[in-house]
Each structure stands twice: as structure tokens, then as C-alpha cells.
User: What shape does this take?
Amino acid sequence: MGKPTWRTALSDRIPGGRDGRRMLTVTFVDRIGSGLWGATATLYFTYAAGLGTAEIGVLLAVSGSVGIAGPPLGGLLADRVPLRPLLIIVQLVRAVASLALLTTTDLGLLLAITSVGSLGDRAASVLTKLYATRVAGPERVRYQAISRTAMNVGWAVGGLAAAAALTGGTVTVYRWLLIGDALSFLASALFTLGCAEPPSAARIAAKSTSAPGEPAASAPSDPAPAPGKTTAPNPWRDRRYLTYTAGEAVLFLDDSVFKVGLPLWAVTATSAPHQLVPLLLVLNNVLVVLFQVPFARFGATPHTARTSLWPLAGAFLLGGAALAASTVGAPWLAAVTLVLAATAFTVAEMLHATISWELSVVLAPPTAQGAYLGVHGLAQAVQRSAGPLAVTAAIAAGPLGWLGLGAGLAAMCGAQHHLVRDRGDGALSVAPVTVSEH
Assistant: This one.
């Protein structure tokens, strides 16, 4: 046997084998396109589509609201049809929606197209998570950390490419960036074609219900329950999981803090130089790329993930206190406290991403994992719609608003810690079994 190369050694460290590596490529390519479009969407609608500020606001609000249905719908379908072709179809829908934006400037049509695209974006997110959960098995948390690193690098590449292209400043450039976004979805679909269908507990359960002498059920739809068998668990009737998801929507507020709160607060309430704002976002990106994988240890087991809610609470408290303190003192002191706040909220982001991934999976029954993770996906979708309002309310309240927000997030961590209780032996009261472990 030859000595393994560094590339082989690196591949061996990525959970999920060949399919796990290919799905990382899908994630990376997808995020490049998202970086291209995310950096230029408002400019495209302003200069290429000719929409006013109010019209753009309506467009983004409506499409975002429609997109909330994407995670539960995608998760529900994933328990009934093969996951790989479903993900390919969703990627193709996103590509078609992106290209369709080039064909019209009518607000009504743009509303319909962006709503379909938003629905596909949110569905693709939960389907990709579900695929990773199934293929990575017990190493799902490490895989999630590597995946988030790939996401951030992809976003950075797309954003830098968009920034370079925008130096031209023409309508044609905006259109080509949108085409690049569509091509990223097409490429993602092609890479997904090369992946295998991951194991599904719902299918295994379906086979086990077949009568003796009959072939195992293989249809994509759920079979009728056998006598004496209960129907598949329903996340909408699981009060504990719904309560957990509602708490998650609050804890995902770190996203709005970075996208809305930190920039607005820095330029309107502090004496820090405005040039610091983009550097804070770069700091966030760099820290995630460097430390998200090491942070996977905080969610290595369900018990560890639950315990890590306490340092998460501390990070939120520190971030809120630092933002509150940034209004006091000279510009250099404001800059230091803003950097401290950005670091604290980035630590919170990495901790919560790890904790959330593990607990959302282990609290979901294996035979309905898609439906449950789809419901959990609502947390991020709702936060994207309501989060900016919560953050701007904190800004309006001044330093006390940030202290209150930090304390509220810390209190929610405590509530989640109580909700996700141990049985007394270090395990959660819901058995930590995943579909890939059957």
C-alpha cells in the first residue's frame, strides 16, 4: 500500500464518504451563486427592473413570506419521495426562477417569480441538511461544521466576484450576475446527479410493514399503516418540538444582528469610523471559516449540545453588553467594543449552529425526520421576516435595548436547556437515533 497523500487524508476527514464530499461541492457552488445575487439583488431591481424603494420592499417582504412554506413542504415531501431527485428538481426550479427574472419588469410577475424562487431556496436548504444528516450519520455535527465553512467560503467568493463585476456599474453587469446565480443552481443539480440516494428510515419502516411473502414496499408514498401500527409522527402535533422550534426562531436573531443591527447601530449611534462596518462582516466570515469545525465538539453528543446552551447564553449577553457600551467614549473605544460585539455574536452564531443541528435531529423521530426538520426550518424562515423588526426595535431603544436583547436571548437559552431535558443518564428523553444509523 502506498503512502496516503494529503488529499486522501483530507477526504477521509470528511464524513459521508464520496457522497458527503459531493454534497459539500453542491453547497459551495450554490453559495457562490447566492453571493453573486445577494450582493446585487437590490441594485438589479432598482436599475434593471426599474422598481422604486417601496416596490422593492413589497417584493422582498412578499417573497420572503411565501418562502416560509418551503422548509415544511420540502421536509414533508422528503419523507414520501426519494430525496436526491427531489433536491435536483428544487435546484432546477431555482434556476428557472432566476432566469425568469430577466424576462419582465412587471411588479406582479416579479412577485410571482421571486416567490417561487424563495420557496425553492428555503426548501433546498432543509433538503440539503436532511441529505447531510442521512449520509453523515453519527458524524453529522462535524459534517455540518465543514458544510458551514464551505458555505462561508462560497459566499465570500461570490461576493468578491460581484464586487469586482460591479466596478463596471452597468445594467448588463447586473443581468450577467443574475445569470451566474442561475448557472450555480444548474451546476448544483448536475453535481447532485452524481450523488447516491441516502438511506431513509421511512423506507425501512415501510419495508418492515410488508406482509409475509409479499415484496417490501418501495413506492415513494407512505404505505397504509399495518394493523396495530401507529401512523407516522406528526410534528404539528408535537408540542415539545414546536416549542423548541419557536425558541430557535429567537436564537437565530444573530443573523439579523449582523445584517441589520450592527451596521445601523455603528453608523447611527457610535463614533466609530464607518469604514469599520464592512470589516466587522469580514471578521464574522473569517472567524466562521477558521473555527466552525473546531466548534463541532460543542455538539458532539446530544448531552454536550444541551450543556453548550450555557456558553451560548454567555456569548449573547456579552454581545449585547458590548453593543450597549459602544456609544460611550472616543472613536477608538467605540471601535474596540464593536469588534468585541461582532466577535461575541460570531461565537454565538457558531455555537448555535452546532447545537441547533444536533438537537433538531435527535428530537425528530427517525421515520418522520424530513417532516420534523422541515418544521424546524421554519425557525430561520420566520427569523428572516421578523428578525429585522426585533433588531431595529433594539436600536430604537438605545443601549438598554441591546442589553435587553442580549438578556432575552440568554434567557431563551435557559428555556431551551430546560425543554431539552436529560433522562438522568446523560441522554435526552428522545432517543438520539438518525436514519443513517438503521
